[in-house]
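Appendix B, record 7
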Amino acid sequence: MTRIIMSGCNGAMGRTISGIVAEDPQAEIVAGIDVNTDVENDYPVFSRISDCDIEADAIIDFSTPKILTELLSYSSEKKVPIVLCTTGYTEEQLAQIEAAAEHTAILKSANMSLGINTLMRLVQEAARVLAAEGFDVEIVEKHHNQKLDAPSGTALALADSINEAMGNPYEYVYDRSQRRQKREKKELGISAVRGGTIVGDHDVIFAGKDEVITFSHTAYSKAVFGKGAVFAAKFLKGKENGRYDMADVIAAN
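Structure tokens (predicted):
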């Protein structure tokens, strides 16, 4: 049994994860952290993690970068591993996470989906064969019309995984409207589509002479990210100090 503290428990993802854990016999949420403590939960909720006096095996954070310092302090002091699912960290905060990993186990990933993280491994293997043979690589991502950033962090993570597999030769190209020239061989195009209520679509296209291979991932609900976070928390239980990501979770299973 993995005992979990859910930071951001009364937000949309926090409630989703609470529902996932309720059906998981190997996990239990023993406490929640949220500024909104008026919601009825099946576990005690604290407005600040420093007030939490309940023992746990892992923390899942889907809240705000504003409380990162307090979360890392608690995790380091109590030796409770933490899964960081929140986005929007500054460069200073990212450095803070790396420093804290010397004192506790921290898992942070650009995307918590098991499917996306498996896809990252698959496209690396494909790139070593196809890109090496001259196939062009393009990524197309689609999200809902309320998403603020473009391209998505997941699209960039997919691009980075391919680039690293090939020794980092690629230049990322986001807009060709100002270019009137043929595509360079070491371009990696990344295109963003925004519309409707699309949760998340990512296509990685390897286009060669007379053949095209496409790897696709579609998220139909945000629950896929919650499932991955719970999976990560169970993986992180009892782990030594250090930085982990979802690739470590997948490799262990």
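Remarks on this record: The first strand starts at residue 2 and ends at 7. The radius of gyration is 20 Å.
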